[in-house]
From TrEMBL:
<feature type="transmembrane region" description="Helical">
    <location>
        <begin position="44"/>
        <end position="63"/>
    </location>
</feature>
<feature type="transmembrane region" description="Helical">
    <location>
        <begin position="69"/>
        <end position="91"/>
    </location>
</feature>
<keyword id="KW-1133">Transmembrane helix</keyword>
<feature type="domain" description="NAD(P) transhydrogenase alpha subunit C-terminal">
    <location>
        <begin position="15"/>
        <end position="100"/>
    </location>
</feature>
<keyword id="KW-1003">Cell membrane</keyword>
<dbReference type="Pfam" id="PF12769">
    <property type="entry name" value="PNTB_4TM"/>
</dbReference>
<keyword id="KW-0520">NAD</keyword>
<keyword id="KW-0472">Membrane</keyword>
<comment type="function">
    <text>The transhydrogenation between NADH and NADP is coupled to respiration and ATP hydrolysis and functions as a proton pump across the membrane.</text>
</comment>
<keyword id="KW-0521">NADP</keyword>
<feature type="transmembrane region" description="Helical">
    <location>
        <begin position="14"/>
        <end position="32"/>
    </location>
</feature>
<keyword id="KW-1278">Translocase</keyword>
<dbReference type="InterPro" id="IPR024605">
    <property type="entry name" value="NADP_transhyd_a_C"/>
</dbReference>
<keyword id="KW-0997">Cell inner membrane</keyword>
<protein>
    <recommendedName>
        <fullName>proton-translocating NAD(P)(+) transhydrogenase</fullName>
        <ecNumber>7.1.1.1</ecNumber>
    </recommendedName>
</protein>
<keyword id="KW-0812">Transmembrane</keyword>
């Protein structure tokens, strides 16, 4: 517990920025009209592609005996990849709705 409090006191500014970013993200996403969903999903896919590459790089730099870093890196790569693939599937399905039927 003492280690957690030391970490919190050393990085309090970064923690505040993350908390404010979460609230800002919720407000921005909550106000997006459904018409803009497909273009924004494509942009989010590109961003998450960068996140996956960053997670791979950071995981590769972790020490082999640092199991928490390796587990978190693996989860970041896995969840980021699922988000990218799911975003492309949703975007493809939405674009299918605008194609002419034979």
């Amino acid at each position: 517990m003492h280690t957690f409090l030391d970490f919190f006191h050393q990085h309090v500014e970064i923690i505040y920025i993350v908390i404010l970013s979460v609230f800002l993200g919720i407000e921005v996403i909550g106000r997006v009209p459904s018409v803009l969903h497909t273009p924004l999903m494509s942009g989010a896919n590109a961003i998450h592609g960068v996140v996956v590459i960053g997670a791979i790089i950071v995981t590769g730099q972790a020490q082999p005996d640092n199991y928490p870093a390796l587990i978190l890196g693996f989860l970041a790569v896995l969840l980021g990849t699922l988000n990218v693939v799911g975003g492309f599937v949703v975007t493809d399905r939405m674009l299918e709705m605008f194609k002419k039927k034979k």
